[in-house]
Amino acid sequence: MKKTIDSHQHVWQLTSHYFNWPTPDLQSIYRDFSPADIEPHLRDAGISGTILVQASPTMDETLDLLELAQHYPFILGVVGWIDMETEAAPDQIAELAANPYFCGIRPMIQTIDDIDWMLKKTIEPSFTVLKRLGLTFDALVFPKHLRNLNVLVERHPDLKIVIDHGAKPHIKDNIFEPWAAEIRMLANHPQVYCKLSGLVTEAGQEWSWEKMLPFVEHLFKCFGYQRIMWGSDYPVLNLVSHYQEWHELCRQYVKKLGSLVEEAVFGANAAEFYLGRQGSGVVA
Fold first, then answer.
1. What is the reported pTM?
2. 3-state DSSP call for residue 192?
């Protein structure tokens, strides 16, 4: 099997000046998480490398993540954050793109009050630069954002977009629609990928694979195995589960679909999406 990749992991340090989440009430994840914490999980699961994703809406964290990538060989790429509404945003994206580990950006749409934010004209120049440089856009959204996300996708058919955590469906309450219909609509656009990540958290403390299965099956039915990438969402998944459990559940499900599917979901799709501009050598 080719290089295997965890497409979605976080690190954070409570003493960082930009740290504001998680909060103390989330006891299982309210501590420092570093690459040294990640590495044993990757090794035990047979995962070759990881994509670090921003967790704080600040450029400083992005720079720190890029610095970590210089020192840990298993960090293959970084998804960062910039303030897309500033005039400087396009230039900042271009500057970050000079770093070979920089893959793209993730605005924290789920925390923005304005549900129409992603359609604002002020952020259009940032999308233009992302497309020109072959960078990616992580859509951190809830089901309520999917209609607007579809509009955004139609505006930018050549922008590489991945939906984080399957758009966080309401698995805990078993609410399948309209999430399912709107996911199907988005999947009609070939530039849109989706992460098989975060679903166990959305299923809540009383989660079960049986409860998640209809949502997982729907994602595969809509996107096909060619546009789904596995991610742990470590350490957030520690709120309800742990790395090895989530990895093994997903691995068992995907294995039943065949070795070609397993290779794509657990590595090749993430490599193509995030690391394509780094050259083909990273996926060998």
1. 0.96
2. strand
